[in-house]
Structures are given as C-alpha cells and as structure tokens.
Amino acid sequence: MIITQAPLPDRAMLERARLPAFTDSSLIRPWRRPGDEARLIDRTAHGLAALARAVAERTGTPPRVGLPAWICSQALEPLRRTGAGLTYLPVSGRDGTIDWAAAEAMGGFDILIVVHTFGQPVDLEPARRLRARHGCLLVEDAAHVLAPIPGIADGSDVTCYSPHKLLPLPEGAVVSFAPGATAWAAPFDRALGQPPMAPDDRDWLNRRQFQANAPDLLRLVLPQRGQPRFDSDPAPAEPAEPVAPSDLARRLLGAADVAAEARRRRDNAEALLKALARLPDLKPLFPGMSAAPYRLALRAASPQAAAKHYDALRRARLPVESWPDLPPRVVADPIHSRGAVLLRNTVLLLPVHGALDPDETAATYRQALRWG
After folding, report:
1. Are strands 296-300 and 347-350 parallel, antiparallel or unpaired?
2. 3-state secondary structure of 40
3. Which of 81, 251, 270, 352 is most buried by its number of CB atoms within 10 A?
4. Residue 207 pLDDT more than 80?
5. In this structure, are residues 330 and 191 in contact, taking their beta carbons and an 8 Å threshold?
6. Which residues of 134-173 are buried (b: 16+ CB within 10 A; e: fewer)?
7. Domains identified in the chain and CATH numbers
8. Taking the C-alpha atoms of 64, 67, 72 and 74 in order, what is their torsion angle to the nearest 10 degrees?
C-alpha cells in the first residue's frame, strides 16, 4: 500500500461495510458515555458552530468563546460565521496547555473550548474551576481523540469527536452532551437544522482503495499533497456547508474496529519513535503515550531543524505536516501568543493510522531523515 497521511480501509472493513448501516444511536455508542445524549453529524467544526447558535438563542446575543491560541484557523471558520466573539487564550510553548491565569483575567466567556490536541488528554480541572466561577458552557474539542479514555469527557458539558479524522470515513463526527447538559441537545438540533445528505462518496472510496492496494513505489510519481514548505500555510478556502453523513459513511463507521485501530496507531507511533530516536534535534512533543495518537507529533530543536527535516521528507515524497495554520489575530500578536507561535514553528506531524505497517513505515522514514 502507499504510505499516506489519510486513514485507509482494509479488506475486512470493506466486507463488514456491506451490511446495512445501523441506527445513529448504535453507530455512535463508542463515543457516548452512560447518561450522555449524542448526535451524529458530519464535522466537529459544524457542531461547534451549532453550539454557538444554540447559546445565542438562549442569551439573545452572539456568545463570547474562549479557546486556545494554538488552534487550526480554518477549522474555526463556521464558528466565526455565527458572529461569535473569539478570544484566543495564551498557551505554553512546551505542550500547548492553556495559561489559566491569563484565561481567568480574560474571562466572562459563554463557551470555553479545551482542545485535546493530537489526542493527548489535557488536565480539565482548571477549566472546570473557571466554568464554576463564570457559568460558561465547557466544551471539549476531542476531534483528535479516537474514542473516550480516562481524562476525556471528564466533567465537561459537551464533547466533540471527529471519527472521520482517525478512521477511513468520508464524513462523521459526534457531539455528546453530558448528563447535566442534555437540555442543550434540543437547541443544538434547532441550530443545526436538517442538512442534506452528503453527495455520492464513490470517488472518495475509489481513491482510498487505490491507495490501499497500490505499491508504495507509486508514491514517488503521484502528485504530492500538502504544503511545499514547512513555513507555508494552506490557502484560505470556503468552508463546506453541513451535510448529513452518507450511507457509505455510516456503513464504514459501523464496520470500524476502534480497539484494533487504537492498537495499530500505538504500534506505528512506537516504531517511528524507536527508528528516529537517535536524531538529536527531533523529539516527541509528548513524552508519554496515554492515548491512541492522531499523528505522531515531534518537536524540533529549532525552526531551522524543523524546516530541514520537513524538506527531507518532502524530497522523499513522504507524508509530513506542520500545524495547518494559526488564526490571523494570533500571528499578529506574537508576544501575547508566543507559545502558540513557537509550537507552530517547531512541530512536525507524521502519519500513524492503522493501515500502515510499523516496520516498513519506520524504516522508510528513518532512511529519509538519515540522508536528509
């Protein structure tokens, strides 16, 4: 198979997906904890926007939203279009943790969003204390989390997951309301409305099947995706309108083996870490692996080292990413946002999805970086 950044379906999953799609409630069971009320939607970004409209319906004014400055800007576009006021909270340049003292000083939020970046659980206790003082809605953005584990959906009001980011699905996200916040489900439904069914996903499936079955040598001649330089950001794009997940997406979600995917992601991350352990200027961003990783996040010793390794992997035509893009207001205020800017300038992301072979992937990346 071709080494890709995107998850790929294997033959067993496609065979299981031949069965009719289950009901939404059964499909989202892995992401719903006892007592939760949950919804299957297409994208977490649309779920956050619907939450903002639901809060505005109750308060009569656009909500003020607090969120970490180290966050993907384009993913926020649906939220921006609700009229919500976004306040970017300073973060640590070490691991992206919100500076809670600064957040308290900037408080008065209607919605507070905490992000489990790359699937790594963050400590929610400071966020819960801030919610208790200000009465805001506490939302966990778990778009990089494969499925709930200890530390995820831990005392918040709403948790948003994006299975389509970690499993081979054309679309599919889950918004889960905790037992004490289920009254928000009806306003959320009104805000979301009834999106049309997603268009035919056969092109998506054909592309993924080709990548899963073609030899990796084709990677060297196929068009290369991603940003050409480490310091370049994707061009602004018009956000897609909300849709209801297609029948194919539902079938694939029902066919997914979440536990097996978690094991394979850990295996791939561990194999890559072992293969790259001798590189003196590239270390794991998170020293422990308490969750199935979304990507293997590596921290370079400097922006120059990050760019050097990024260029080496691009020359080898291997998948590699930088953090997609920071919000323009964050970039424009580097002193207030120096932690976010530092992370953007030093973090590399490598694929670890379950379709990859740990030994082959590790050997390929080791060779590219050794000669880079």
Report:
1. antiparallel
2. strand
3. 352
4. yes
5. no
6. bebbbbbbbbbbbbbbebbbbebbbbbbbbbbbbbbbbbb
7. 11-192 (3.40.640.10)
8. -10
Letter for the amino acid at 157?
A: D
DSSP tag of 190: H
Which residues have C-beta within 8 Å of that of residue 132, sequence separation ≥ 6?
none
Ramachandran region, residue 108 (left: φ > 0; alpha: ψ -120 to 50; beta: rest) = left
Q: Of 91, 81, 64, which is closest to residue 241 (Cα–Cα)? A: 81
| Secondary element (H or E) of residue 114 | strand 111-115
In this structure, what token pair is assigned to residue 170?
């054309």
Burial class (CB in 10 A: 0-12, 13-18, 19+), 333: middle
Question: To which residue do tokens 């590399």 refer?
Answer: 348
Residue in 238, 232, 258, 249 with CA at minimum distance from that of residue 322: 232
The HSE-up count of residue 261 (CA atoms within 13 Å, CB side) is 25
CA dist., res. 244 & res. 260, Å (int): 27
Work out the number of other CB atoms within 10 angstroms of the CB of residue 38. Answer: 22
CA gap 84, 81 in Å, rounded: 7
Residue 283 structure tokens:
């270390």
pLDDT per residue as tens digits for the range 15-31: 999 988 889 999 999 99
Are the C-beta atoms of residues 90 and 99 closer than 8 Å to each other? yes
Of 143, 44, 127, 121, nearest in space to 89 by CA = 127
Beta-ladder partners of 137? 111
The phi and psi torsions of 263 (rounded to 5 degrees) equal -60, -45
Q: What is the pLDDT of residues 89-136, one digit of tens each?
A: 999 999 999 999 999 999 889 999 999 999 999 999 999 999 999 899
- CA distances to 92, 149, 226 from 36, rounded to whole Å, are 32, 15, 37
Contact, 174 vs 38, CB < 8 A? yes
DSSP at 182: G
pTM, two decimal places: 0.95
What does the block give as tokens for 144?
């990089």
| pLDDT for residue 235 | 86
